[in-house]
Specification:
The chain contains ten helices and two strands. It is mainly α and 226 residues long. It has two domains: 57 residues, Homeodomain-like (Arc Repressor Mutant, subunit A, Orthogonal Bundle), CATH 1.10.10.60; 142 residues, Orthogonal Bundle (Tetracycline Repressor, domain 2). A two-stranded antiparallel ribbon has the order 1-2. Helix 4 runs parallel beside helix 8 and helix 6 packs across helix 10.
């Protein structure tokens, strides 16, 4: 995956961007004022506007500072390119999503704001994340052509995992008033099992030989409903 070279920033500029990421992610584009961002960055608004003449410029720079950190490991890239088994690749995709977009969720919230509140920012998101989407969708297209994922459209397979994780991570607390409290060790197999089931594939929790369902030692069969 291509990695853009980031321009060297001054200490003050970096502090402004970190404050902007925090408040834009927390309050959205319209809900975060440049005055509050300047206060959090411990500068005055005149200094902030010297670096970023428009609020849109500040948002795009803040979002780009997080988008440029998204990384897909070489091992996952190889699995996608070589059409590795879904039971191997889907958990790696889940881990990629969790590590880059949900732990912490700042980038995901900035992406939502870019798509709904900031004209033109969606192009920047596509520029950075488009190559990842293309690689993942290409993998599912080839799986579909081989009859490995039933009648599921490859674009749905590509985006559904991110949608399920996002809904569960964000809505659980809203409707239950409790923290989810899931670490990566629990989240990866749970979300992977969900997608594999939706794709009509064998789940991680079991492997089947000679018609007998056996427990997988890496992901033991869970008794609770997920």
């Amino acid at each position: 995956m291509p990695v853009k070279k980031k321009a060297t920033r001054t200490v003050t500029e970096a502090r402004i961007l970190e404050a902007a990421v925090q408040l834009f992610a927390q309050n959205g584009f319209k809900g975060a004022s440049t005055r509050d961002i300047a206060r959090l960055a411990r500068v005055n608004e005149v200094t902030l506007f010297r670096y970023f003449p428009r609020k849109n410029d500040l948002f795009c720079a803040a979002a780009e500072s997080r988008l440029s950190r998204v990384r897909m490991g070489r091992e996952l890239q190889n699995k996608l390119a070589k059409d590795a088994a879904l039971q191997i690749t889907v958990p790696m995709l889940t881990e990629f999503l969790l590590e880059n977009f949900f732990y912490p969720p700042d980038l995901l919230r900035l992406i939502f704001a870019a798509g709904s509140e900031v004209p033109g920012a969606d192009r920047m998101v596509r520029e950075y994340l488009g190559p990842f989407f293309d690689a993942i969708q290409g993998y599912f297209e080839r799986c579909s052509a081989k009859g490995l994922i039933g009648q599921v459209d490859p674009s749905i397979a590509t985006l559904s995992l991110a949608g399920v994780v996002s809904a569960h991570q964000n809505f659980y607390r809203l409707f239950t008033e409790r923290d989810l409290g899931w670490d990566k060790e629990r989240s990866v197999p749970a979300y992977s099992d969900f997608l594999l089931s939706a794709l009509g594939c064998q789940r991680l929790g079991t492997n089947q030989e000679h018609g007998v369902v056996r427990e997988n030692k890496l992901f033991p069969m869970r008794q609770e409903n997920i």
